[in-house]
Amino acid sequence: MRKSLTQTEAILLQRRASAIVIPPESAADDLPEEPKYPQEKWIYSKAFSAGVSFFVAGVNDGSLGSLTPYIIRSYNVDTNMVAILYGSTFLGWLFAALSNSTITQYLNLGPILCLGAGFQVIAHVLRVWTPPFPLYVITFFLASLGQAYNDAHANTYISSLRAGHRWLGFIHAMYMAGCLVGPFIATAVGSANSQWCLFYLFPLGIGLINLALVAVSFRDYMGPTPKKQLMAESSMSALKEIGYTLSKPGVWLLSLFFFFFLGATITSGGWMVEYLVQVRKGDVTEMGYIPSGFYGGAFLGRLLLPEPTHRLGERKMVFIYAVLCVGLQLVFWLVPNIITEAVAISLLGFFSGPFMVAGISVGSRIFSPEIKSSAIAFVFTFGQIGGSIFPAVTGIIAAQAGVEVLQPILVGLLGAAGISCRADKTRTGATGYVGGDFLFLLSRTHPEWNISALVRDEEKAKQLAKVYPSLRVVLGDLSSSDIIEEEVKQADIVYQIANCDHTGAAATIAKGAACHTAERPCWVIHTSGTASLIFEDTRAQTHGIERTKEYNDWDGVDELRNLPDDAYHRDVEKIIIAAGQVDPARVKTAIVSPPNVYGPGRGVFNQTSMQAYYLSRKVLKRKKGIIVGEGKNVWSEVHVQDLSDLFLLLGEAAAAGGGDATWGDDGYYLCENGESVWGEVERAIARAAYEKGYIPSPEVEPLGEGEVVPTNLWYGLYLWGSNCRVRSIRAKRLLGWKPFRPPMMELIEDIVEGEAQALKKE
């Protein structure tokens, strides 16, 4: 079996079941740098202002359930008409969702928050004098529009802060504090005075305080939109930003979770009092206080549970909470005792408390910077749309079938919320350079996928699990055939980013994939390497000369699929291709073949590559610059983070049933974002080492094969002296892959410095 030229490690990624990763033995033990957070002025003032904004929204939302009996009797309407209030709220959130990207093109954060606070003040001004019912309905549109602008953007800002999950716990606890206070004041005013609308003097007063706090705390965001943002927006219009945001599966999956969760909580709070009065025959003046138990529990849950939820893994913990909530809702429904129901609803509030915090925290990590604001705003508003639709539908059904329908609806919604947080289970893992970077990206883009890693070292397995709490770690290596085969059988998508000459592992993957069915095929994404294309240099034993031969993966795919048998990696590629040919309905294959991979990795362990890195190390140890032959040979290259983007696009296409990607015989993907002449690379490395004072001269001298082979393992002169020129067409044309990271030559100084520091530690 031929030794591998690959720079990568193994990943087996599965969308709904499991995955395996085998790290290289040479992986470094450096952990990734801690993410940088913005340095803000008046950060506590801003956080407090955001908390007050959520408190105002909580008072508004939490009071409606207690006011519903008074609204029905005062306006002489039935539950059908009350449902219109939720319909008006839905329209407000919908309008906000559609206009958010446009408004952020023209207004900075401060004016947007003030606009939202202002709409809420206007709504409460119109409500306080018992307006005609049509005008009263319109105020709910204004209030929800204001909440959408105010709270959605406060969410985005707070989630970007250091320890954002804790700050999110605070502001969302403030929302529940408002929900807790609202029913008490609404019931007290409604039961003591026929003018129940006087209650709105309270949210009006705190709404004015909210407006003032926003204006003062966010005064440094009151100016025009920053130039940097305007430059970015010049290349991404509002409509394009909306389209790009909505094209991300993670946005829709997180939105679906909020859609059901807020549908359940707002439906419960809105109709609970009417249910207790009509079904349990409770006194309206007493039942109006029971929603406060739910909101009080949620207030404590949002204060106390975000930290353990974050540490133990949001997805896993939210699913556990959802199961508990369904059980408590069943107790509320099936046990006809008001005291028991009050306790059950309070505990339900407690365990559902961290749902919102966990979702926004996950969203802040997985959405890329250019869409984070619009994505979180959309997720939040889409959830509120669910909180408007389901209460309205409940009211309409209740008008026909009675308010007893509330309980089965709530059980269904809570169950759907729990299921949605478990959707698209995926497992993967990585500890090496390329695999580690891809795991970093995947875990943030698709936290809803289950992730597993096959790791050979127990200590590294523990470290990996600590960084990724939701990760499932399996001890093993490429020779663990039984483990790999079983994992592949359970997998929907398999990423193989491993030793691309390990025929045993490839055969095991093919065997496991063959156990799938046409209804549930296995998508195998195998990583090879363009060292398979240097056979002309290896046959002729030429080094440092220029060859003009260039390969592409579009009209040249047949040539790639039929490379000579003495080409590197060919044995394994033939196994993967054959696996898809035996039964293409059950096994879908794609081969990704990267050239020289470079750039800083974002993984837990190994964060550096090989070619330019090994060369830099050779120069530093030798204290002289080197050149191989004439230095005219050319290698194509790809930044590791651009390569991870391609892996992600292929996985998302597989998750969508194949998407626009090509699979099977033509599913061969070269990936590059330019090329370098290696004589220029060698001179740049010598120059950088000289300018940093590591070597005495920037000059280069020829390096013979007898000197490089012992230093550079078995690769000999081919690593630095061969030609490998490719063009990536398929990924760009079909998947919209757009590599944009800097070329390798711009990173030479960083590469040399990194290797110098690594040598000092040895």
TrEMBL record:
User: Keywords for this entry?
Assistant: Membrane, Transmembrane, Transmembrane helix
**Which positions, given as ranges, span the membrane?**
80-99, 133-149, 170-192, 198-218, 250-273, 288-305, 317-336, 342-363, 375-399
- Principal cellular location given in the protein's record: membrane
Among SUPFAM superfamilies, the record links this protein to: MFS general substrate transporter, NAD(P)-binding Rossmann-fold domains
Question: Its membrane topology, per UniProt?
Answer: Multi-pass membrane protein
Q: Which GO terms describe its cellular component?
A: membrane
The record's InterPro entries line, in alphabetical order, gives: Epimerase_deHydtase, MFS, MFS_dom, MFS_trans_sf, MFS_Transporter, NAD(P)-bd_dom_sf
User: Sorted alphabetically, which Gene3D superfamilies does this protein's record hold?
Assistant: MFS general substrate transporter like domains, NAD(P)-binding Rossmann-like Domain
Recall the GO molecular function terms of this protein's record.
Answer: transmembrane transporter activity
Keyword Membrane in the entry? The reply is yes
User: Locate the Major facilitator superfamily (MFS) profile domain: which residues?
Assistant: 46-427
Among its keywords, does the record have Transmembrane helix?
A: yes
Subcellular localization is given as: Membrane
Q: What is this protein called?
A: Major facilitator superfamily (MFS) profile domain-containing protein
